[in-house]
Design brief:
Shape: flat
Helix content: 55-70%
Radius of gyration: 33 Å
Order of helices and strands: HHHHH
Structural class: mainly alpha
Distance between the termini: 81 Å
Low-confidence stretches: none
Strand content: under 5%
Largest sheet: none
Mean pLDDT: 80
Number of helices: 5
């Protein structure tokens, strides 16, 4: 009995998404089977579909915002994005030495490289 009640509650929670058509195929099949066998659940589903239709209708009748409201909204979004943008600071210890007399990429602007040693030479062989 408890298991059935929990299963029914889970299905009831899925009803809005089923009405909107956003459930996976497996979940949609589960809801459809439950609706076919439970008239009270089917009535609740009808109410969910009516609410969804009314919400869509209401949103459509509101119309688009004015040009000025859109401009203010986009300006606020841009300002927020700029405020959130991470500021890049150079890392300490990872900078290449720069020689003012040389351009980047020339020999003077690169760190000095030590010659590689042969492993056999290091082992004394």
């Amino acid at each position: 009995m408890i298991n059935k009640r929990l299963e029914r509650q889970e299905i009831e929670r899925l009803l809005p998404w089923h009405a909107a058509g956003t459930l996976s195929r497996r979940e949609a099949d589960l809801v459809e089977r439950a609706l076919a066998g439970d008239t009270e659940l089917a009535q609740r589903y009808d109410l969910v579909r009516q609410e969804l239709a009314e919400t869509i209708h209401l949103n459509e009748t509101l119309g688009a915002p004015s040009e000025r409201a859109m401009e203010k909204l986009f300006a606020a979004i841009e300002a927020e994005e700029k405020a959130r943008a991470p500021r890049r600071r150079p890392r300490r210890g990872h900078q290449r030495p720069v020689c003012p007399d040389h351009v980047a990429g020339c020999e003077g602007s690169q760190p000095e490289r030590r010659p590689r040693r042969d492993a056999r030479a290091m082992l004394g062989r």
